[in-house]
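User: Hi! Is it possible to get a structure for several chains at once, not just one? Here's what I have:
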Amino acid sequence: MNSQTNLSGARVVHRSVSASARAPSAQNDALARKMRRRGQKARFSWLVPTLYIVFLLLPIYWLVNMSFKTNAEILGGFSLFPQNPTLRNYMVIFTDPSWYSGYINSIIYVVLNTTISVAVALPAAYAFSRYRFLGDKHLFFWLLTNRMAPPAVFALPFLQLYSSFGLIDTHIAVALAHCLFNVPLAVWILEGFMSGVPKEIDETAYVDGYSFPRFFIKIFIPLISSGIGVAAFFCFMFSWVELLIARTLTTTDARPIASVMTRTVSASGLDWGVLAAAGVLTIIPGALVIYFVRNYIAKGFALGRV
Amino acid sequence: MDKTWNNKAWFLVLPVLLLVGFSAVIPLMTVVNYSVQDTFGNNVFFWAGLSWFEQVLNSSRFHDALVRNLVFSLTILAIEIPLGIFIALNMPRKGWGVPVCLVLMALPLLIPWNVVGTIWQVFGRVDIGLLGRTLAAMGIDYNYATNPVAAWVTVVVMDVWHWTSLVVLLCYAGLVSIPDAYYQAAKIDGASRWSVFRYIQLPKMHRVLLIAVLLRFMDSFMIYTEPFVVTGGGPGSTTTFLSIDLVKMAIGQFDLGPAAAMSIIYFLIILLLSWIFYTVMTNYDARR
Amino acid sequence: MAKIELEHIKHSYLPNPVKDADLALKEVHHSWSDGGAYALLGPSGCGKTTLLNIISGLIRPSHGRIVFDGTDVTDLSTQERNIAQVFQFPVVYDTMTVYDNLAFPLRNRGVPQAEVDRAVRDILEMIDLADWSGRRARGLTADQKQKISLGRGLVRADVNAILFDEPLTVIDPHMKWVLRSQLKQLHHKFGFTMVYVTHDQTEALTFADKVVVMYEGEIVQIGTPEELFERPSHTFVGYFIGSPGMNVMPVKVEGAKAHLGSAVIDLPGAADTSRSRRLELGVRPEYVRLGRQGHPVHIRKVEDIGRHKIVRADLGGMEVAAILGEHDELPTDAHVSFDPAGINLYADSWRVDLGGQNG
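Assistant: Yes, the chains can be modeled jointly so their relative placement is included. Here is the combined structure:
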């Protein structure tokens, strides 16, 4: 039995029932074999993400491994596990204020930046998603171009700008500077989520006598709360990982942890153990944030635009 | 959605405008200002016209950095996009594996960029790194501090390690939005695995892929911290990308004029390339 | 075009089902004749889509066998079973043209181009999209897309069966009638076995030769529309089919007499009901007579719905619905009686044969 004859036959006459009931033909056999092979492939598809995750975790593991070793062991031998596990490296960081204040500084300006970015982006995103106004398209594109601005281009001008305001080495300087790329991003993400909320909701609220601010805070913000979460996540992420601008604008008081790490170069050479421990500690805040938003990650990365 | 014309919406945009204006326009003005002036020190400046631009555009140093950066960006796009799609296609769709995969894969994205550099610097070192030691033991000449090929491979692999997850997560978001009925219909229509990919999965991922390509291109074109930590732009200047070169010039040598001119050229190139990418891909989308 | 036999099919979505409640589909054991038009009718979550997917091979049942014309197909893939299925929501390949969408199932099976072209043109004509054949499917309206989905199901004329999973949900009411009658015509023309899932009783009753009513994972009755109406074999069928549904009243039975509160009702025959825990009397409103004889009732409400009136009466604390003709008057001192032809007795929800009745 093959499909051509069936097709032409069936168009004119009622095909005999027995044809389809006959024992599986050669074609069907081949098909069945193909299906089985496909099924087998599906069973091994877990290998791909597993291998990828191993590839991702291996370098991180090596850092963690090193952070529990003494410098002598790091330089002297080669072992997959710390032979004499030590917490010395971590103790160095937790007892020296110039180390742990680095973490506090980083957290302060990242949180400041996330708050500012989302707060100013909310009304702007609402305007872009709901209204047409003079120059709106140009403005939106101009905003996005700031996301494309290389930090290296802005590092020096920022230094001069903030020195003239006397803001150098303050948390707010870094937070404001990071707004350059985080605000456009937040506007873009929030605009995507807001466009998914039907306009009728706004209109109903106004008919019900809500003023704009009350509607915005009481009704609209709860509706796009997942969008706000995603925007905040991205702002946090890009502010947390950026170093070039943060380092340029700070000297001692607001110095980020990432920048403090370069200090491990001392007269006696690199203190590898402490460097590794500091690195491990910078991974933890990010890991915590990911853990809390794990259920929104996939959707969030699509920025509400799938 | 039909939008109403309302110029009062400007008031809603005003905070963003002021903030971004403050942190973008004023610095950019400074850059433009420097790019057309020269100084002998003591804050005395005089008009230099477009001479800095000519100097930068004619310098082989700039050409080399530009070419290196383009090669780098295209290489990582060519690796990360297909690899990301392939991994996303093989991710579990339900069950306990989903959050585990997502959390572990997102991890590199939230590591500060200089720590990414540090991780690979340590991992690849011949004396103390797992990778460097292993390769050396296998008899491969691998030393990213002296061997340009090794340096390039390290920088590329590091970027793949750092950013492929972004592509994976974006594609995965596209894939999970496909209703089951599509796969069932494809089975009933007798579609091959390739047809399912070509006609169901790829069209659904298409929008997020546009985002992925744009983001990855822009960010790789601005890359600074990670290669700087690992190779410092070396050996020689074999991994000196545009940003590394610019920072060297501006903060290292304090050549403000050429640095400013280069900044503007650099920014314009990024805008131009991003615009080309964007138009080509959206036009392609419209034609399909 | 095949006879479909479902042999002791059970299905659970859980890995280790232990109790009955874990089963999405309790035991189904039926045989569906070749060329029949069946409607699977039931509320949401009753297992009708599960049963449909088991027939098409998208789901492998946890227990039992599926046999097409004497061949066991339980382990065969959808493709090997040669089944077409149309889903509730339109599934179209966005990037393909309307023509390519329809040709897709045929091309995948290696049908020569000339045959493909003829089949596709036939279908385009039938679903009235001939003018759109070169257009991308992306920009089409929901009902145009659903017509394409239907067309993809119908383009392979050699299929063993076509399964429809509430295919007309997204189509507007006028178009529904047109498409439904086209489907019926096609069925008469080609005579394939058709299974049509719906929760709309009108759709099921007008479309199918046999209606399969499902409730909580089991088939409660298979019958013609008349059978479902006259002799519901389960109280659920009584409730679900007909508007308003059947009156179901708890009773005590002694021989051929049923005690409904203080009222005594003569049954058409006697039945042994000693082992049943719960006995109910089922009478459709159409068989409830309002007049001056019978049991006194208190009228609660009269709903005039145009062609007739629905009277809600209170019989000893129990609500009884009755149908009254448009011009009939409601007697002042109302009594109800039940037409013996419409009296059904249910033991633990299942109909008891009382004898003396044809059914």
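The longest helix of chain A spans residues 97-130. Residues 1-41 of chain A have pLDDT under 50 and may be disordered.

User: Great, thank you!
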